[in-house]
Description:
Two copies of one chain form a homodimer.
Chain A: E1 12-14, H1 20-23, H2 30-34, H3 37-49, H4 66-82, E2 85-89, H5 93-105, E3 122-126, H6 131-140, E4 146-151, H7 158-175, E5 183-188, H8 193-201, E6 204-208, H9 221-229, H10 234-247, H11 257-270, E7 275-280, H12 286-300, E8 302-304, E9 310-313, E10 316-319, H13 330-335, E11 340-349, H14 364-367, H15 374-391, E12 396-403, H16 406-427, H17 438-447, H18 454-462
Parallel strand pairs in A: 2-3, 2-4, 4-5, 5-6, 7-10, 7-11, 11-12
Antiparallel strand pairs in A: 1-12, 8-9
Helix pairs in contact in A: 3-16, 4-9, 5-9, 5-12, 10-16, 11-16, 12-16, 17-18
Amino acid sequence: MTNTDNSNGRITVDYTNMIRSSVGKRGYTVKQLVGMEQVAEQAYMQVQANRGKGMQGWMDLHSNQSKVVEDILACAKSVRSKFDTFVLLGIGGSALGPIAVFNALCHLYHNELPDNKRNAPRFYCVDNVDPVRLSQLLDIIDVKTTMFNIVTKSGSTSETMSQYLIIECMLKQQLGDEYRHHIIATTSRDKGNLIKLAKKNKYKTFFIDEGVGGRFCELSPVGLLPAAVLGIDIRQLLQGAKCMDMECSSPKMFDNPALLLAVLQKMAMDNGNNITVCMPYADNLKYIADWFAQLWAESLGKAVDRQGNTVNVGQTPVKALGVTDQHSQVQLYAEGPFDKVIMFLAVEQFSKSVTIPQGCEEYENVNFLCGHTLEELMNTELYATKYALTKSGKLNYTITLPSITPHSIGQLLQLFMMQTAYCGELLNIDTYNQPGVEGGKNATYALLGRKGYEQLREEIGSSDKQDYIL
Amino acid sequence: MTNTDNSNGRITVDYTNMIRSSVGKRGYTVKQLVGMEQVAEQAYMQVQANRGKGMQGWMDLHSNQSKVVEDILACAKSVRSKFDTFVLLGIGGSALGPIAVFNALCHLYHNELPDNKRNAPRFYCVDNVDPVRLSQLLDIIDVKTTMFNIVTKSGSTSETMSQYLIIECMLKQQLGDEYRHHIIATTSRDKGNLIKLAKKNKYKTFFIDEGVGGRFCELSPVGLLPAAVLGIDIRQLLQGAKCMDMECSSPKMFDNPALLLAVLQKMAMDNGNNITVCMPYADNLKYIADWFAQLWAESLGKAVDRQGNTVNVGQTPVKALGVTDQHSQVQLYAEGPFDKVIMFLAVEQFSKSVTIPQGCEEYENVNFLCGHTLEELMNTELYATKYALTKSGKLNYTITLPSITPHSIGQLLQLFMMQTAYCGELLNIDTYNQPGVEGGKNATYALLGRKGYEQLREEIGSSDKQDYIL
């Protein structure tokens, strides 16, 4: 690696504007931060002790998949040569990571590029059950030249299995027995329906290990297969994650960026900051904010702590995009309540450069732009927004990618996952469960007539009050 | 209108789950609501008194544009016949409304439909200055067959004017003097640079009235022109808005849905609910949440009240999509802090129906889905999610569209704008200004070397501390 090639450069974290000397009275003194070192070290030790165990199986995905990667690359090569479209059927963690990586590392209009300019199949991720969306997707793809990747660890996700049944039926009608070569299943190795269906129907299969939960699975085959099909260098993605893991190998929070960020967010939560904004300044990073939102919300939004005490904790993630949302959200961030931490994602070097030409000499309030580049304008506005928010006393920090590459995206994913794991420890909660979604799932089962849910159905029926309607 | 044709049906508001008897102790008693009638009426009277005046020029857009509509329809007809692509250059309110209406009322994959199945030009809205985004857009469009609509009321929005300069230069290079027929300007009638440039260069022009601010301009030519180009019935859009305006013509909050929602949100804010989630259960409504987020955040996020007292008010809007985000956010909503109001947007009748086929008899936890439709699954999950969140004591209400049509979207936009206007009155703030974005704008000017900002530049330079970097 030389100075001019920053493709494998490190991500940096600038937390200056979380510090009192910069942001004012709501910021933290260095003494306060140092006072957190001990609990930070405990959180680190706890995470470290469980590395690879239980639901922390995700932590070593960057290093323990060499055979899986070979299998994925071979499969991706075959898909790329035979299919013009790749459709992922999945929801939540099965979809958000693949969408984020696709948007980060492919052409922003990938699916609309003419065939001769697009070096990979078109990619669609169907992560809803809206009948309009699915019908209209079928208006623009030809199932005969499409590979479908069904992704559900449990094999019982209602949304994904519904899509699977619809697509399987359609494939069979159009292709007969050939249909099985248009389906790849990514699921549990030994649990649930999808692996049984896959074995019965002889689908190509990839596995999600038991210790890898939905929101921590992007570096498993869930994310690696679509990325490889799209021509993304998945070895570099994993290498980036590994580099970040090494950056986070110290129990000392001032030497461990994920641990430091976890501590800063925990301190902010304790001070009433129940919102965190993720605001990338690059269209390529827009969907990283969506992926982060699930990771942060589902992992940290919990009713009880490990001892069963009611705590109702969790910070609500908000997705924004710079500079776009300066014109929609920053008014609130600057002048509204002191209730949020704003996380900026910055990019040092963009992959394209566009210069604003001359041609407006008579209008000084436009002419000053001429001769600058768009990337200059973008990063200047980021700098200016940070400056203005900091002057307004609003907590903020910045994560900077040297450029957007598989390596830097791998670093970023690992950084966020590690930060979430540490923050869960600091909050003394189970980072990896999601009991709060069971209520809605069970009510759906009851309402759709699944066996065993008759009593709940009655309860729901009798609670149906709609007295207040305008 | 008959019972079976609900294309012009009314939007309904169900606030049952804001009431104590349904949602528990954090809900409101009917007595508490009744106690708000007087302040609600005052807010109504204040809004009504200023109808059409100052920045409330947006309120009558549904009824005072018959000539403008004719001009727009004629222009749209010409654009549709001559161009295969329509690109809007704008940001904030100039972009969010057009994107929301496009996504609501066109095919979800409109731009990817083959020419013979797409009855309108492709549509792109460039609302950022990312050089990658603009370069890559140019990979998929041919400027020779593209109409560019430059939208900025002030004519000095840095982002939009930068894009304009780039595109104008490119058009001139490729088309010579013909370039002027590829640009439509939507701007102030008499202020700013864009109207001067438009006159000088003889661009086709549409106007934004002084009393119509960025986030309240979707029913002005800003939104109507792209909608008309896309073949959307803009008269029905306006008619829907007019119907909702009439629904909101009572000073009695129990007869005025926008006023009632404003009161409920004000009460919730007073009780510490600093977050409001907008969660449509339809892919077609996804970007309505983005449009609403700007409207709500910029209008209500204010540092001072009308008397100049520091208040730092504002509720942070969060965008979610049902059922998708049940698998990313609902865990937090169900189990996290009692800090948010969840607004669901529901659709009674979808424009497509897809049945989940049989084929899974051996697996009961999938088989119960078979025979149901996707729209049933969607709306059952909405019902189940509301049920579960209400059982967890989380405030929520539901706005239901009979179906997604220009008329119902017109109603919805007007409802949200009226609610915002009332809520601003209840908060005793200026709903229509955005002083909080000036800090960042000025810092950008200073950093890019605009004349008159030299002192600020020095200030920024001397405040540049980056001591805390990992």
